[in-house]
Structure formats: C-alpha cells, structure tokens
Design brief:
The two termini are 44 Å apart. It is built from 13 helices and 16 strands. α1 packs antiparallel against α13, α2 crosses α8 and α8 crosses α13. It is an alpha/beta fold and 463 residues long. The strands form 2 sheets. An 8-stranded mixed sheet has the order 1-10-12-11-13-16-14-15, with helices on both faces. An 8-stranded mixed sheet has the order 3-2-9-5-6-7-8-4. The protein is elongated, with a radius of gyration of 25 Å.
Length: 463
C-alpha cells in the first residue's frame, strides 16, 4: 500500500505541478501587462522627457572637450539630483578635443559648363586642416575603395570624391548607412594610400539636402594624413554631373580644424536601488556628447533624457524593481567611446555585476522594438515578452547590435539591448544642422522612455 501511495503522489505531482506553474506564469504575465500599461499611461500624460531635452539642447552642440559638453555634464547631474535619484555621481575621464575652426570652404574653379561653383561642405570630425592658403587639385569621383585602388597612380595628387549613396532599397535606413559609412570612416586613409591630396565624402544621408552631415573619420599610423570633408548630397549630385560632363575639374578646399590636447570630462550616473538585489545592475544609457552641428536632439540627447525619464517613471509609479536600474549619460561616443570604455573598466575593477544594459542611440522616434545581443537563455526570456509591448507597437524583438557605449560591457558577457525606433527619418537629421529639438515629437520621445522602463523592469524581475 505504501508503494501505491507513492505512485499516486507522483502521478498527482505530474498533473498538478505543470498546472500550478502555468497558473503562476499566467498571473505573472497579467501583472507585467498591467504594470506595462501603467507605465505607458503615465508616460503619455506628460512631456517630461521633452522638457529635459529642451534643457539639454539649449546648451547647443556638445562635442567632447567643449564648454557645452562640460555644461551638459553638470546639467544632467543636477537633473538626477532634482529627481532624487540615488547615488548620483560623476565618473571622471579624459576625452579628445577636436575643434572645427571658422573656415570650411570648397569650390569648383574651372568648370567649362558651370564656371565657379561654391559647394556646401564641412570638415569630418578628427580631420587635419588644409594648408593655410587651402589646396587646389583636380577632383576625381569613385564609388568604392576597389575602384579607387584600380586607378593607381592616376589618383595621385588628386582630391578623391567618394560618392556612394545609401542603397534606397534597404527598408532599414541603418542598413543603408552601414553600406556607405566606410567612405567616411576610412576614405582619407584609402585616398592617401594612392597619393590623394584630400578626401571629399558624400554626406551620410539617404535624402537630398544642402546640409553637410559630419561624423567621425580615422587615420592610420603608417599612412599620410590628409584633410577630409563631407559634401551635401545636393552638391554631391551636382559635382558628379559636372565631372561627367567636363571630364577635368579643379576644386579648391580650405579647412581650419585642429586637434587640441585631451580635456577632462565625465560620465554621469544615477539610479533607483534594487529592493532585493541592489548589487545587481541594469544600465539604461545614451551619450551626452554630440557633433558640433545642430544641437544633438536626436543624436543623442533623446537617448539621454529617455534613460532619465525611464528611471523617473519607475520612481513616480512607486515600482520597486528587484535589481538596481541605473541611468548613465556616457561621454565621447561620437569620437572616441571613452565613456563606454571607462564605465566598463571600472565595472571590471570593482567586480560590479551587470545583469543587462539597454542603450538608446537611434533617435527619439516612436519605438518599434529592441535589438538583442546575448546568450540563448537571455534571448529566449526577452523574446517571450513581445506581447507586453504590442499595445505600443514596440514588439519587434530581433537579434542584432545593441549600442556603441554598452559594447564593451557586451564583450564582457553582459546581455545588451538597443532600443529600436522608427528609422526612416533619422538620417535626415543625423550629424547635421537639422538635428534640433523641433524635429522631435514629445509623445514619441515619451513612448521610447516607457519602452525602456518596461524592459528594464521586466529584466529586474525575471533575469
């Protein structure tokens, strides 16, 4: 009889336990959906993130090492103190200090069909200056590095014009960007390898406008440094047509940019402490620096204020996450990544356990989902939450890169997530004078903050 009781208990356990677990899972899902709905509703009742962004962008562009970047560090520290975040502090670091200079000029000098034509350009970040009087050389157009290398000696002493546009067939504009941006990053190196005098790069935007879009470029230690500039897409089209018609065209280029000694700066940190596991951390972050064109509203003032707003929403609703959720304003993403590197270095040194990191650096548009980098267990858990984001249209959870500032944490084994907003308009503004607060919709910005808050809360409870 005793054996019969054991068998009966075993059979009951097989039947009852799955049902109990299923009931528990259903209860959890209902609770999380209810919590998510509360976060969304609280977010949409205010434009708080937009008001924070107004304060940040009022400082102007915030290139690393600039007075405006220093002011932004202090401003966001004060914001977190004002909102009564826990453990608000600065994380000191040294950053590059590149200065654009007052002169950025380019012109076609001798076009038989057009005569003298001034072109709209700007120096690429990190470029050296031209000689004091500028430089004059024939300009030749290429679409790829392979085409340039095939020219060989014919490219020597020329200005190399890289004119490969975004692939318009790519639905995600970030894919179009990825297919074109190596011209900007490595164009000066490749041009110098064949003896080129300077690099002129089509702006990184799928649109046609008269605003040059700047961005970072690199030099190689074993290759001569030459000046590099971006040309607006409208003028890139014009220059291409003139070269095709006239065959030989001379161009004058003058830049006065320079690199100064590194400057002191800081990341800014503030958090809501975990109720059960305060030593385990979830990062929400954006980068506080911006290029010196526009005011960095979408790139990445939006990501910074969304990270702050996500923590504020959790505090306002008196939600008590099990783990600490920390907002980090990273410094120097645009031209050095030193903020992300320093944050990860200190985490390793102090043996801080990071459960996950979430970055917003794709603009303040309506959220569509998250990209995820992490092991299969983290992936399966995160993708199981898709339905919770359906009501706000942010249920697209895919494998993919999470973000530059958290990339070092990800390499150290921390699951990384990137907030993925609607992408179609981002590169209309990116790194240009167009990136200003009037291009940001307050409700879309709030929804992005809500999506980050929900994801951070779910991770804090379930990882």
């Amino acid at each position: 009889m005793r054996g019969d009781y054991k068998r009966m208990f075993f059979v009951m356990a097989i039947v009852v336990l799955p049902a109990t677990l299923q009931a528990q899972n259903t209860a959890n899902e209902k609770f999380y959906q209810h919590t998510a709905d509360k976060i969304i509703q609280a977010a949409l009742r205010t434009d708080h993130a937009y008001q924070l962004l107004r304060e940040v962008t009022a400082l102007g562009p915030r290139l690393s090492g600039s007075p405006q970047a220093a002011a932004a560090v202090e401003l966001t520290r004060q914001m977190m103190e004002r909102l009564q975040f826990a453990n608000v502090r600065l994380q000191p670091l040294m950053v590059p200090n590149w200065v654009r200079g007052p002169i950025e000029e380019a012109a076609i000098l001798n076009s038989p069909s057009h005569g003298y034509v001034a072109l709209t350009i700007c120096a690429l970040g990190g470029s050296i200056a031209t000689p004091e009087m500028g430089l004059v050389a024939e300009v030749i157009e290429v679409k790829s590095f392979e085409e340039l290398r095939a020219l060989g000696k014919k490219a020597a002493s020329k200005i190399i014009f890289f004119n490969r546009p975004f692939d318009p067939a790519q639905f995600e504009t970030f894919a179009g960007y990825g297919g074109a941006v190596n011209q900007r990053g490595s164009g000066a190196i490749e041009a110098a390898k064949v003896g080129g005098m300077a690099a002129l790069v089509r702006s990184m935007t799928p649109g046609l406008d008269d605003f040059p879009h700047t961005g970072g470029m690199r030099y190689a230690e074993d290759v001569a440094k030459i000046p590099a500039a971006a040309i607006s897409t409208l003028d890139a089209e014009l220059l291409s047509k003139i070269i095709a018609h006239d065959k030989s065209v001379n161009l004058r280029l003058k830049l006065t940019c320079q690199t100064l000694p590194d400057a002191p700066s800081a990341n800014v940190l503030g958090e809501i402490l975990g109720s059960e596991k305060p030593d385990e951390v979830i990062v929400l972050g954006g980068h506080l620096d911006s290029w010196d064109k526009g005011t960095g509203a979408h790139d990445d003032g939006a990501g910074c204020v969304q990270s702050i707003e996500a923590v504020r929403l959790l505090k306002t609703l008196d939600l008590k996450p099990k783990r600490t959720i920390r907002a980090v304003m990273f410094m120097n993403e645009e031209n050095g990544l030193r903020g992300g590197i320093e944050y990860a270095r200190e985490a390793r040194e102090k043996n801080v356990k990071h459960v996950a990191a979430i970055e917003s650096d794709r603009g303040g548009f309506a959220p569509r989902g998250f990209s995820v980098e992490g092991d299969s267990l983290a992936w399966q858990k995160i993708i199981s939450w898709r339905s919770i984001f359906e009501s706000m249209g942010a249920e697209r959870i895919t494998r993919g890169g999470s973000g530059a500032d958290i990339s070092v944490l990800v390499r150290d084994g921390v699951p990384g997530l990137g907030l993925v907003p609607e992408s179609q308009r981002y590169f209309d503004y990116h790194h240009s004078d167009n990136d200003t607060i009037d291009k940001v919709n307050p409700r879309e910005l709030q929804l992005g903050a809500a999506a980050m808050a929900i994801m951070a809360y779910l991770i804090s409870e379930e990882f």
